[in-house]
Specification:
The structure holds two protein chains of two kinds. By secondary structure, chain A is an alpha+beta fold. Chain A has helices at residues 2-29, 55-64, 70-79, 100-107; strands spanning 47-53, 84-91, 115-123, 127-134, 142-149, 152-159. The chains are: A alpha+beta, B alpha+beta.
């Protein structure tokens, strides 16, 4: 009877782990990364910003932005086809208020075959900037940006096809912070 | 057959007011949640109007555009919490979670900002109502708070979405600041 109980609980645990894993990977495959595990940082942070622009809101923004204003025309073109923009940003008073494990919980989701790390800048003084692009064309597409320094952690997740060359035009809009992300140049052939 | 149709129509008629009442109650529920969590009491707009404060006539400027009213006429609901000590009954994160849970069925949490260990909090929730959108803004400071709910058109919402950081302030200013020029 006891072994049966242990077996049942093991099976249930495995089933839960499987379900949880499937949800995480399926979500990351759709271009959406999970940020809920960072909620505990809100209590430590001096400032927290969370922005959720889902598909319905993106459609409204794309549909009703003015077609007369030159800047809005560009933005309209950029957001057409996007399925969501999600931003989470923390500022801390002290160093060490967030850990490598917090960062890893995001990176783990971006290690799948669909994602490619296209920018990786690390500086002891200024922190690091990582840009991941969902390069699998059969998928929806997406972009994930991780900005971290000892007192700041920002994650930007854009769902849908993103043109990196034009990403800067979205900075400062729809909750996307100024990131100064540029598309890496191809290495010259020898 | 006729009885079935009448029965169906009766259920439909009974459900309609219930649905609209449920939509209208969210504002009150949010105000009540703040009162319970922070041990404060709100003042509604009619009370303040009697005390000499004019109702909202501010013209808000959206993303550098021409000043114009944001909220649809007659759609503004406001509850003020003034000169009171906001003493949380639990963690600030508990408040955020209870607010989100309260509105999770119909509302989308669009933006949340929590600053300086919960001394200032802003929440903006959005809900589609036909062709219009309800915008619910909750702002809580150390000694003051305000809850605003307005209806906006899709065009207005599109403009507001461009600058989420300013959305809550724009809506709140539109609903509460008295414009001396009018």
């Amino acid at each position: 009877m006891k072994s049966l109980l242990i077996k049942s609980s093991t099976c249930a645990t495995l089933a839960l782990l499987f379900l949880f894993g499937t949800t995480l990977s399926a979500s990351a495959q759709d271009g959406r990364i999970q940020l809920g595990q960072l909620e505990h940082l809100t209590a430590k942070a001096s400032d927290t910003i969370t922005v959720n622009l889902d598909e319905k809101l993106m459609q409204i923004a794309a549909k009703f932005l003015s077609g007369a204003d030159e800047d809005e025309i560009k933005v309209k073109e950029l957001i057409n086809g996007l399925k969501g923009i999600y931003v989470k940003s923390f500022e801390f008073e002290r160093e060490g208020d967030y850990t490598t494990a917090d960062l890893e919980s995001i990176r783990t989701q971006l290690r799948g075959p669909s994602w490619s790390k296209i920018v990786n800048i690390t500086s002891k003084k200024d922190g690091s900037l990582e840009v991941y692009l969902m390069s699998d064309t059969s998928k929806l597409g997406g972009l994930a940006i991780l900005v971290s320094d000892p007192k700041e952690l920002t994650i930007v997740n854009i769902i849908g096809p993103v043109d990196l060359d034009k990403l800067s035009q979205l900075e400062g809009k729809f909750g996307i912070p100024e990131l100064n992300v540029t598309k890496p140049k191809n290495k010259p052939r020898n | 057959m006729n009885r079935a149709i009448i029965h169906g129509l009766t259920i439909l008629v009974l459900l309609m007011p219930a649905t609209s009442a449920a939509k209208g109650d969210d504002f009150k529920m949010v105000v009540k949640t703040i009162e319970q969590f922070y041990n404060v009491k709100h003042r509604s707009l009619p009370f303040l109007a009697k005390a000499g404060l004019k109702t909202a006539t501010a013209a808000a400027r959206i993303a550098g555009g021409t000043p114009k009213r944001v909220a649809e006429a007659g759609s503004v609901k406001v509850a003020f919490f003034e000169e009171q000590e906001f003493i949380p009954r639990g963690k600030v994160s508990d408040f955020r979670q209870s607010l989100t849970a309260l509105l999770s069925n119909e509302w989308t949490p669009f933006i949340q900002t929590v600053s300086a260990k919960g001394e200032e909090q802003n929440f903006v929730f959005l809900r589609a109502v036909g062709e219009k959108w309800n915008v619910l803004v909750v702002t809580i400071g150390k000694h003051e708070g305000v809850v605003v709910q307005v209806n906006v058109s899709q065009q207005t919402l599109a403009q507001l979405l461009k600058d989420p950081d300013e959305l809550g302030k724009t809506i709140t200013d539109d609903a509460t600041i008295v414009d001396d020029q009018e």
